[in-house]
């Protein structure tokens, strides 16, 4: 497949379009950033812009680490056993959180 392949170009545009749609048409984008972070930032008075910039930088670092980490860990999760172990660990954490919420209430 060469770089001039029309199906590759269509695939790239489809992926970019999907990413943009999931970003800008997602209501959680606005709920999380505008309302939640905006309300928290306003509670920091004069430091609200520093808080907002810090939140944006932290988000950028988080998603870059998530993307690059997923790429590096992809070979490890090529086996069914690794996925089962991950699912089991997630189940244990969720059960612990649920029990903690029940006990605390």
Structural features, described:
The chain is flat, with a radius of gyration of 20 Å. Helix content is 82%, strand content 0%. The chain is mainly α. It has helices spanning 6-24, 27-42, 48-73, 80-104. It starts with 5 loop residues before the first helix and ends with a helix. The chain is built from 4 helices and no strands.
Question: Topology, please?
Answer:
Elements (H helix, E strand, L loop, with lengths): L5 H19 L2 H16 L5 H26 L6 H25 L1
Characteristic key phrases:
105 residues; flat
What is the gist of this entry?
82% of the residues lie in helices and 0% in strands.
Distance between the termini: 59 Å
- Spans of at least 5 consecutive residues whose pLDDT stays below 50 are none
| Approximate strand percentage | under 5%
**What structural class do you assign from the helix and strand content?**
mainly alpha
Please tell me how large the radius of gyration is.
20 Å
């Amino acid at each position: 497949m060469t770089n001039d392949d029309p199906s590759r170009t269509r695939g790239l545009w489809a992926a970019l379009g999907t990413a943009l749609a999931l970003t800008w048409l997602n209501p959680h984008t606005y709920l999380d950033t505008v309302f939640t972070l905006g309300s928290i930032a306003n509670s920091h008075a004069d430091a609200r812009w520093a808080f907002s910039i810090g939140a944006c930088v932290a988000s950028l670092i988080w998603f870059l680490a998530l993307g690059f980490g997923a790429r590096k860990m992809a070979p490890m999760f090529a086996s069914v056993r690794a996925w089962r172990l991950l699912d089991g660990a997630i189940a244990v954490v969720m059960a612990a959180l649920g029990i903690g919420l029940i006990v605390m209430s």
